[in-house]
Fold:
Amino acid sequence: MKFREWLTAAGLPQGIACAAALLLWCGSAYSSPLFSIGDGGDRTWTQAMNDGNVQVAPDPLAGGAAVTFYAGQIGESMGGPEVAEVQAADDVELTPDVPVSGSATFDALVMSWRNTNTNDPTILNVAAWEYVYDIDPDLTGTLITFSLLAPAGVWDFSLELIDVNGNSRGWFGVPPNTSWGVFSIDPSSAVAQVPFSVVITSGVFDITHVTTIRLNESSQGGIAFIDNPAQEGDSTTPWNAWNSLSVRRIFDIKPDSEPSCFNSDGNGLIPVRIMGTPTFDVNTIDAETLQLDAQPVATGGGGKLMCHVEDVNGDGLDDLVCQFDDNGVYDPTDTVGTVTGLRTDASPFVSTDAICIVQ
Structure:
């Protein structure tokens, strides 16, 4: 029996039962995996650092995926001396909300790093910062998106997830230089995702209990960098900048609300968003076949379906946004909404999201 049903069965009026369920959902017993920091987000980088969520990673090589990847960089070269050793940088600094210019100027999070071997080009110095969740949430069905500017001299960029048991899954690639790039990862998919050419899973990774999102960077000692925007006049300290970091639902009823609560009284429309990912193209969905729990896609003038494709998060991937008729099919005990339909190859499309119905 679901918690909300138990409350009702216990004799609580329906409105109080629903309110109590919401308190459990939004309180200490539940932690949403969703957040958005930086450009267009709910918090600035300064706020996220003050909240204790964004911090320097104590050990950028603590994740098994990172250890495996960087061990494989020994003997590699960026055109200079080959890497002979990998070390964690011992002087890493985060500076929030610094204006950084590339193809555009944004208030960014800048990570600077050094160590005692910074002038030895045979040593690859690794630094990282991380987003630490307050409670270990389930990242199944989410999309992680971030915007990055990496100056020339940065060896790699990566995103690594750490679970409650210390196991990890990481994606590694070559960063774009001198301009902002926006990238998305479907963390449920343990495959290489453009532009990340390498994916490594360490141990029995548990995506249902993720504690940390870690972003690793590295550089060889002695590599010249353009002026560090966080340290005026400094052209020797390696750095990297992030404009934004967000986690969204790939399939989201009443987008960007958590939980997805709405009134189902038979009037109005119910919005649904389906995010494109590096492994899923929303243009393969036949919008005419979609139904939200038997409720059709709404139509506008001339009978045109109220569905459109746009790039919601700026990652260069199409996303599908639709409005469905509210036919009053839900009652306050319903906890899941389901969209069904067909893809253009006639294969079925099914996706679900947690909902709560208010009166």
Residues 1-30 have pLDDT under 50 and may be disordered.
